[in-house]
Specification:
Radius of gyration: 24 Å
CATH class of the domain at 452-551: Alpha Beta
Distance between the termini: 44 Å
Number of helices: 17
CATH superfamily of the domain at 452-551: ANL, C-terminal domain
CATH topology of the domain at 452-551: GMP Synthetase, Chain A, domain 3
CATH architecture of the domain at 452-551: 2-Layer Sandwich
Largest sheet: 8 strands, mixed
Length: about 550
């Protein structure tokens, strides 16, 4: 079974998808069909300056005094963002940046990050969004590969700058006094002073944004986001009813696809976006929901788990009843976390399955998740999902595992180093394997390279991982395949125990044996205080596979 449109010719299907997308955008009030002038102007801005700058420019033209963002320094309106970014673009041009140049932005969520994105978009400069958890080798490798001409960064990353040539210009996007930044380094504020805030002429073409992959197995690859279309928003809004003119709490980092896409869409819907205090704090998130009466929350799954793990006493201190939509993406959510979220936040969880390369693939709504907490949901408008077997033939029966392929017109066109994902009949591999159930809901069984063969049996660690993590005495778990002389591979489980855990490895093994086949029982169970994750909350499996268990 596959989630696909009827067998129509490509052109007819694209026309149909376009009509459906427009209907979604009208239904979600992304634009007013009674004001075609607004629609045309907004689309024109997006096509000339890129999605992010185009959205803010349109909002500044239609509602300049409306609140746009809130950070540690207070609130900025759409009009202020537009004018200050105009001035900053001129300041960056005076630093020697020209359309077509490449800059790196290494910043947390705050006004400096936002103004950097806007100014580079208005200049036609290509922006590489760097990961705030980078070590020097990763940062240097990406900067060299992407031909970075300048770096805009927070002062906390000053030491990281020693990894790249000293003649690459720097601009500080946020300054903390404790970092003792050299006063000769220009700041965003210094580049804005005494420069014109008047609109800028459009560049010959948008500079574009490069979003980096998670880099869980090495140096992150660059996935350019050069396809500009206002209709891409329909893929999110078709199954996720983000509120209009409300308050969005942004916990996910906007240097990654999840945060950037929802931040842009939140602003397009007229929302005021409240940032965290630069670093995620689960209780502060609850406090901000209460203080700002937020009606939407954007985060990655590990953040959701940390909120729920605060415990009933802490959760009861805050009023989360205003939340209508929780948008989570970036990695799989353990089924028990799904159920706990639905119970605490009143059926508001929407879980997106997507990737940096393939963009949106499926969305699981609260109704889907109540029915099947482990599901990835269904494809929204304009997207086809199919499963192909090892010979790359379609799988049409339910509950048969195959590789997930997606047909999405807004997928990337290839990494910046020239490589790309596997393509079959115009559809791109997600790199995951999964199955459909009899109702057409998609389930992800794991990465295609995570599957191990143990004693001749195919095993996907994710199934075992979810089972262990579902125990009441376990906070989270990770299961990996490691080499075994006798069986080829065997499973090893890493477990973060809760306060009620007995920390008994045999108890965990017996639990798995009672619920799954014998060959899926981990040979070892290792207890850890926390699992290794990157800045977007994605589990880093390589350190677990390579861990010296005797030393742990």
């Amino acid at each position: 079974m596959s989630l696909s449109f009827p067998a129509l010719s490509g052109t007819v299907r694209k026309v149909g998808d376009l009509a459906l997308s427009v209907n979604v955008m009208v239904r979600r009030r992304l634009f007013n069909p009674l004001r075609p002038d607004h629609v045309v102007r907004s689309a024109f801005n997006v096509l000339r300056f890129g999605p992010f700058a185009g959205v803010v420019m349109h909002a500044a033209q239609t509602g300049p005094s409306a609140g746009a963002i809130v950070d540690e320094r207070g609130e900025l309106t759409f009009g202020q963002l537009d004018e200050q970014s105009n001035a900053l673009a001129r300041g960056l041009a005076d630093q020697g940046l020209q359309p077509g140049d490449v800059v790196a932005v290494l910043a947390r969520d705050h006004r400096g990050m936002v103004l950097s994105l806007l100014a580079t978009g208005k200049l036609g400069v290509r922006t590489v969004l760097m990961n705030t958890s980078f070590a020097k080798p990763q940062f240097a490798d990406v900067a060299e590969r992407e031909h970075v001409k300048a770096v805009l960064h927070d002062s906390e990353f000053l030491e990281l700058m020693s990894a790249i040539p000293a003649d690459i210009p720097r601009v500080l996007t946020w300054v903390d006094e404790k970092d003792n930044a050299d006063p000769s380094i220009p700041t965003i504020e210094s580049l804005v002073v005494r420069r014109s805030t008047a609109p800028l002429p459009a560049p010959a073409k948008p500079g574009g944004v490069v979003v980096l992959t998670s880099g869980t197995t090495g140096t992150p690859k660059g996935a350019p986001r050069d396809r500009v279309s206002p209709f891409a928003s329909a893929q999110f809004l078709d199954r996720v009813p983000l509120p209009n003119n409300g308050t969005m709490l942004m916990a996910a980092p906007i240097f990654h696809g999840t945060g950037l896409s929802q931040f842009t869409l939140g602003l397009a819907l007229g929302n005021r976006v409240v940032f965290q205090q630069r670093r995620f704090d689960p209780e502060k998130t609850l406090a901000n929901i209460t203080t700002y009466r937020a009606d939407s929350l954007v985060l990655v799954p590990t953040m959701l788990q940390r909120i729920l793990d605060l415990g009933d006493e802490v959760l009861a201190k805050y009023d989360s009843s205003t939340i209508k939509v929780i948008f989570a993406a970036g990695s799989a959510i353990a089924p028990d976390v799904v159920t706990r979220t639905l119970d605490y936040f009143n059926d508001s969880l929407y879980n997106l399955y997507g990737s940096t390369e393939c963009a949106v693939m499926t969305v699981a709504t609260p109704e889907d998740l109540r029915k099947a907490p482990a599901t990835a949901g269904r494809a929204p408008v304009g997207i086809r999902i199919v499963l192909l077997d090892e010979n790359r033939k379609p799988i049409t029966e339910p509950n048969v595992i195959g590789t997930v392929f997606v047909d999405n017109g807004f997928a990337f066109t290839g990494y910046t180093d020239g490589r790309t994902k596997e393509i079959v009949d115009g559809m791109m591999s997600s790199g995951d394997v999964g199955h459909f159930d009899a109702d057409g809901l998609l389930f992800i069984d794991g990465r295609d390279d995570d599957m191990i063969v143990s004693g001749g049996e195919n095993v996907f660690p994710l199934e075992v991982e979810n089972l262990i993590a579902g125990r009441d005495d376990i906070f989270e778990a990770a299961v990996v395949g490691v080499d075994d002389r006798e069986f080829g591979k065997r499973l090893r489980a890493f477990v973060v125990p809760g306060p009620d855990s007995t920390r008994n490895p045999q108890e965990i093994k017996d639990y798995v044996k009672a619920n799954l086949a014998r060959y899926k029982v981990p040979r070892e169970v290792i207890f850890l205080d926390e699992l290794p994750r990157n800045a977007t909350g994605k589990l880093l499996r390589k350190p677990l596979i390579e861990m010296d268990v005797d030393a742990s």
